Structure formats: C-alpha cells, structure tokens
Amino acid sequence: MQNYLRLMEQKERRERELREGLRLY
C-alpha cells in the first residue's frame, strides 16, 4: 500500500513539473 501511495505522489509531482515547465516556456 505504501508503495502505491509513493507511486501516485511521484506521478502527481511529475505532472506538476510538466505543467510548470509548459508555463515557463
């Protein structure tokens, strides 16, 4: 269960980074 939560967190972080990256460029 903990591993699943960690994966979800990584996914959210990656999506957030991509969104911010698009905003910057």
TrEMBL record:
What superkingdom does the record give? Eukaryota
| Name of the protein described by the UniProt record | Uncharacterized protein
